[in-house]
Amino acid sequence: MQHHPTPQFTQNKPKLPFYERLAACLIVSFTVALIVMNFYLDEGKLPDVESPVHNTNQSLIQITIEGAVKNPGLYQVEKGTLVQDALQLAQPKEEANLKQIKLDSKVVRRRTIKVPSKK
User: Fold this and answer.
1) What is the C-alpha separation between 68 and 95, in angstroms, rounded?
2) Separation CA 111–CA 115 (nearest Å)
């Protein structure tokens, strides 16, 4: 029976110093962590697309109608609404002097429409 010599481990110094191996391991670990995080954070997300159905509130503006009207108060109307159409919501009284109001102009945000009386 032949006897094989037991291999002896010799202490070979690493080719890279310890701090360089540590830096390389940290860089690789950091890169892998970024890739994994990016994959899991983006998984299942759809690109953000603005839908016109969801933006209907952006086309509404608030106006206040007061004076010679039956229902004074705060109203929400669509952007571009004519003053005459907005006044119909507040129902002008018989004594309302609509000749002093520019009925064909468009309402603007946070505007107060004061309906004067003929009296």
Assistant:
1) 7
2) 13
117: exposed, middle or buried (Cβ count in 10 Å: 0-12, 13-18, 19+): exposed
Distances (CA, A) of 30 to 21, 25, 34, 37: 14, 8, 6, 10
Distance between CA atoms of residues 81 and 84, nearest Å? 8
Q: Which of 83, 57, 69, 85 is nearest to 117 (CA)?
A: 69
Cα separation, 83 vs 81, whole angstroms: 7
pLDDT tens column, 19-55: 888 999 999 999 999 988 887 776 656 555 555 555 5
Q: Hey, what are 47's tokens?
A: 């690109």
Pairing of strands 73-78, 60-67: antiparallel
In the chain, domain spans: 60-115
Pairing between β-strand 60-67 and β-strand 112-115 as defined by DSSP bridges: parallel
Share of the chain above pLDDT 90, in %: 50
